Amino acid sequence: MSRLADAFASPLFRRAMLEAVLVGVIAGVVGVHVVLRRLPFFVAAMSHATFPGIVIASTIGLSLFLGGAVFGLVVVGAVLALGAKKALDNTAAIAVVLAGSFALGMLILSTRPSASRDLSQILVGSVLTVTRADVVTTITVGVVVLGVLGALHKELLLGAFDPAGAAALGYPVGVLDGLLLVAVTVTLVVAVPAVGTLLAIALLTVPALTARLWTDRLGPTMGLAAAFGALSAFGGLCAAALWRIAAGGAIVLAAGTLFAVSLAATSWHRPRLAAPAS
Amino acid sequence: MRDLIVEPWRAPFMRRAILEVALLGLLGAVVGVHVLLRRRAFLTEVVQHTVFPGIAIAFAFGYSLLLGALVTGLASVLLLAALGRRRRIDSDAAMAVLFAVFLAVGVVVVSRRHGFQADLTSLLFGRILAVDDRQLIETLVIASACIVAVAIVHKELVMRAFDPAGAEAMGYPLTRLDLLFDIVVALAVVAGIRAMGTVLAVALIVTPAATARLVCRRIGPSMVVAALIGAIGGWLGLVIAWDASVNHDVRLAPGASVVVVLTAVFVIVAIGTAIARKLMVRGAAR
User: Which of A34, A166, A208, A243 could form a disulfide with A171 if both were Cys (CB 3.0 to 4.6 A apart)?
Assistant: First the structure.
C-alpha cells in the first residue's frame, strides 16, 4: 500500500489521475452514442486511422492532437466517399482504410531511429507523462463535446432510433450524423495520451456497454457509463502504480473487469431471453 | 530493374518472405472473399487483436507463438459466440469488448518484461524477414486446412450469406456453420500473425478481396483476382522495402510496406472503376 501512497504523493501521478478520470468520463458518455448506433467498428477504424496523423505530427513537431484529428477527419471522409459509391459495403471500406492507414503510420515511423520507443508510446499511451497543456486540452474538448451532445441530445437520439422519421421531420440527418462522428473522433484523439491509439476504443465502448447491462433508459446509461469510465481510470492507474504494469493496459483491464462483474451480476437477476441465432 | 527482380531472390530470407506472403495471399483471398460476403470484416480485425495476449504470453514463457495464437484465437471466437447470445449485447459490441480486453491483457503481460518496447514492436508488426522453413510449412498446413474447409462448405456459406432465412428454412445448421466460419477466419488470421504482426494481418485478408470485389461480380473469379493481387502486391511491397534499405539507406518496415502497396492498388482500382462507370453511364445516355 505504501507504494500507492508514494504514487499519490507525486504531482505527476495526481495529474495523470486527473487526465485519466476526465478521459474516462468523456469517453463513457460519448460511448453511449457509439453503442446506440453500432459504431464500434468505426471507432476501431478511427483509432487506427489517427495513428499516421499522430506519427506525422510527432515527426515534424506539431501538436499530436492536431495531427490525429486532421488525419482522422480525412479518413472519415474517405470512408463516407467509398460507402456512398455503393460499390463496397461500409465494413469492407472501413477495414481497408483501417489497415492501410495503420501501415502508412508504421512505414513513416520505421524510417526513424527511435522507432520502437515512439511507437509504444503512441500505441499504448503514456499517461504518466501528460503535460498541463494536455489536461487543459482534455478539459476544453470535454466541455465542448459534452455541451454539443447535451444540446442536441433529442435530435441525436431520434436520428439513432429512427433515421427515416428524423429526416421526414426535417432534421438535417446528414449533418447530425457527421457531427457525431466528429465528436467521436475528437474524443478518441484526446484519449490517446492516456491509453494510446490501440486501447482508446476500449474507453469508448466498454463502460457504455457495462452501463447498458444495468439499464434500458438512456439518461441513467450515460450517468453510469461516465461513472464506470472514471472508476476504470482510477482503478487502473492504482493497479499500474501498485504492480508496475502499463497504465493504459491496466485501465482497460479495470474496465473489462467491471464489465465481467456486471455481466455476471445482471445474468443472476434477470431472466435470460433466448436470443434468436442471427 | 533486373537488380530488383533477381537480386532479392538470391537472399534466402527474401525468398522465404516472398513465398510466405504468396501463401498468405492465397489463403487471404479464399477466406477474404467470404468475409466480405458475410460482412464479417470486423471479426478479422478483432481476432488479430485477441490473439495478441496469446503470443505475448507464449513469448514471455518461451512457448511456441503459433500455439499461443491458436489457443487465444479459438477462445475468443467461442467467447464471442457465448456473449452474442445475451440480450442487450449485439455482436459488434461483444467484439469490441473482447478486442479491448484481450489486447489490454497482452499489453500488460508484455509491459512486465524488460525490453518492453522492442518486444511490443516485433509482436505488433511481425517479422516477415525472419520467417524460417518450419514457419513456412506451418503456414502451408494451416492454409491447406482452411482452404479445404471453405471448399467443402462453400455452397452453404454462399447460400447463408445471400439468404439466411432461406438457408435456415432449408435446414442448414446455421449456428454450427457460423462457428466453423469464424474458426476458419481465426485460423487465417493466426497464420498471418507471425509474419505480418497483430495489426497488419487483416490487410492480407480484406484488402485484396475488397479490390477484387470492385472488378469482379462472380465469387470464383474474385478469389483468383484477390489471390493474384495479394501475391503480386506482397512481392512488390517486399522488393520496395528491400530496395529502400539496400540501395537508398532508408529503413522501411517490410510488413507495413506490403500493406501500403496493397492499399495503393485498392485506391487506384477504386478510382479507375469509378471513372470507368461514369464513362459507361455517359456512353449509355448517348
Answer: A166
